[in-house]
Write a structure and sequence with these properties.
Blueprint (H helix, E strand, L loop, with lengths): L2 E4 L2 H5 L4 H16 L6 E4 L1 H6 L1 H11 L14 E3 L2 H7 L7 E3 L12 H7 L7
Parallel strand pairs: 1-2
Antiparallel strand pairs: 3-4
Length: 124
C-alpha cells in the first residue's frame, strides 16, 4: 500500500533545531528522488483545510480506493495527538475540534529560522 506524507508535517519538526530541520528536508528530498517516490503523496496543509473533500478524494485516488458513498462531515471532526505534540514541545499543535477550516496562525519557530525556510517548497 502506498504511503502518505503531509507536506506540512515537515514544519512540525522545525521546532527541534536547525540540524533536524535540514535532516528532515533532506530525508523527504531523498524519498522523493527514490525509486519508491510513486508511493508518496504530499498534501499541502492549507489546501487540506480549505478543500478537505477534494484533498480526501485525491488521497482515495492515490491509494486506489473507491471513495465511500457516505458523506464525510468536515463540520464535526475531532483529533488530537497529545503525546506527539508534547514530545515536540507544541501542546495542541495537532488538535482538531469542530469544523475543518483554514485558520492562519503564527509560527512556533524562531522568526529567523522560519524566514530562512518559508519559501523552501521543493515538494510542489
Amino acid at each position: 500500500m502506498a504511503g502518505i506524507i503531509k507536506a506540512q508535517s515537515i514544519l512540525v519538526l522545525w521546532g527541534y533545531s536547525k540540524g533536524k530541520l535540514v535532516f528532515t528536508i533532506s530525508a523527504v528530498q531523498e524519498a522523493l528522488a527514490s525509486e519508491e517516490s510513486n508511493r508518496i503523496l504530499l498534501i499541502d496543509y492549507e489546501n487540506l483545510c480549505k478543500q478537505p473533500a477534494n484533498q480526501l478524494l485525491a488521497i482515495y485516488d492515490f491509494l486506489e480506493i473507491v471513495p465511500p458513498t457516505y458523506y464525510h462531515n468536515f463540520d464535526n471532526v475531532e483529533y488530537e495527538a497529545e503525546e506527539f505534540d508534547q514530545a515536540l514541545g507544541a501542546k495542541g499543535l495537532h488538535t482538531v475540534k469542530g469544523k475543518v477550516e483554514w485558520k492562519p496562525r503564527t509560527t512556533i519557530l524562531p522568526q529567523k529560522l522560519f524566514n530562512e525556510y518559508n519559501s523552501f517548497n521543493f515538494w510542489r
